[in-house]
Amino acid sequence: MKKIYWPLLLSIALALGVLLGGFLVSSSFRTPGLTANVNKIKLNKLIDFIEQEYVDEVNTDSIVDQTVTSILEQLDPHSVYIAKESMQSVSESMNGEFVGIGISFYVYKDSLAVIKDIANGPAQKAGIQPGDRILYADTLKIYGEKIPSEEIVSKLKGEEGSDIRLKVYRKKENKFFTTRVTRSMIPLKSVDVGLKLENGLGYIKINRFAGSTYTEFMSALNRLREDRIDGLVLDLRDNGGGYMDQAIKILDEFLDKDLIIVKTINKRGREVLTKASSKGSFQKGPLYVLVNEGSASASEIIAGAIQDNDRGVIIGRRSFGKGLVQRELLLGDGSAIRLTTARYYTPSGRSIQKPYNHGFEEYNNDFITRYERGELYAADSIKIADSLQYKTLEGRVVYGGGGIVPDIFVPIGVKHGDDAVVLLMQSGIVSYFVFEQIDSNRGMFESMDVESLAKHIKSNAMVFKSFKEHLRHSGLNFNLDKRKDMIEFYLIAEFVNQLKDEKDYYHWLFREDAMLKAIPLKVTK
């Protein structure tokens, strides 16, 4: 088997997440009229010549897209082009909603299989259940046709309030039925979960900063306050960023009046200083922020402001290191660019943007450098510049120049060589396997609580054996016998994910969460 460099794969995933979920100004704005000059005329003439004179037929739209992409690549790693074909999905992700029927699914073997449906969503209201196969969507035959997932998603989406007629097969009851589903607005949650931990702290997990994030966050925080939490854990791990105003609003809930939240400086040297108001609802009480190498941009603004103002404790590993602000500019044909228009600085004056003057490849492969240097495993391997020292409000020394260094370091939690196994266990291969297992006896699995599920998987040797066989059929050969406990933990997590709700899933993951375990028992703030 060809060797797979797992750290490289993860670094690519981190880079993509940060590029697409970067630090944005939430209001789009249209570009002003272009001033004619020689270079612009030259580009226009080149496109005209190609269209009119070139010997072969050429898709000039594609050429223009490549040209725009190439120009932006000369600027910085976070100025990017969004083609019009991608704008809808990007906008839906950042707006936090889309119109659809409210299911997650696999194209499983030769049919569309429902994994989960959204609680009280259109599909659930119409009687669709996990494990159901959707055979027809109106007159479109789905099973046996090898229809691309993108085409299926396009068919299931539509106008709000419109109907779609589905023909369904329910395997566990061996029956066919037809139902009509009325499409409605489906939320794309940016706050995964808000729950109370066993130690009395509240916990909120934010996966990105979309247009609805502050509202989602406040809803979760208010519920937790009603539950009389003793403090709050804000989990920003692997959060690649998003809208700047959403991060600022959340920080305003934590900081006392007139404390600095963030400073931005644009090309012309114009400085904008944002300070906290007096309306914060959680200005007192213990606060912990979890970050890792995938926490970027708006996540780093929150971590930096909390750290510099000595409001809470940052726990985890050094964050990504993105201190550039993008503005989304529409190009008039349905496409857009995200152009870097300013740099941001934390309250102490730190720029946490890591260097990119040695090329974008080195920049995007920074995770590999950290991995090879041992930074993910030991705090003393973190590379910091002594010349970039700053001080917090209480006089603690902090550093700029490439991410937020946590107050409490937590290593990645696995031994060298186990990284690939962890990545594997968080991949789609595992979720596909678990779906097959559940599908073989859905009634039995659905009747189990979390502890029963865990006991069944640990005591049933066939589950572990079947998983190894599943990997071999997928072309992956791992020696998993020495890591059986780790494998079973993640398998159970995926069973819980597919069968139970988010709170059950996260409570299971918390059992082996090293960062949560690193929270000090005594709190002072």
Counting DSSP E segments of at least 2 residues, the number of strands comes to 22
- What's the mean pLDDT score? 88
Helix/sheet category: alpha+beta
The end-to-end span amounts to: 53 Å
- What is the rounded Rg? 25 Å
Helix content: 25-40%
Q: CATH superfamily membership of the largest domain, which one?
A: 2-enoyl-CoA Hydratase, Chain A, domain 1
CATH class of the largest domain: Alpha Beta
| CATH fold description of the largest domain | 2-enoyl-CoA Hydratase, Chain A, domain 1
Low-confidence stretches: 1-16, 27-35
Instruction: Tell me what the CATH architecture of the largest domain is.
Output: Alpha-Beta Complex
Biggest beta-sheet profile: 6 strands, mixed
* Large-scale geometry: globular
Roughly what fraction of the amino acids lie in strands? 15-25%
In total, how many domains does the architecture comprise? 3
Helix run count: 19
GO molecular function: endopeptidase activity; serine-type peptidase activity
InterPro entries: ClpP/crotonase-like_dom_sf (IPR029045), PDZ (IPR001478), PDZ_sf (IPR036034), Peptidase_S41A (IPR004447), Tail-specific_protease (IPR005151)
Keywords: Hydrolase, Protease, Serine protease
GO cellular component, one term: outer membrane-bounded periplasmic space
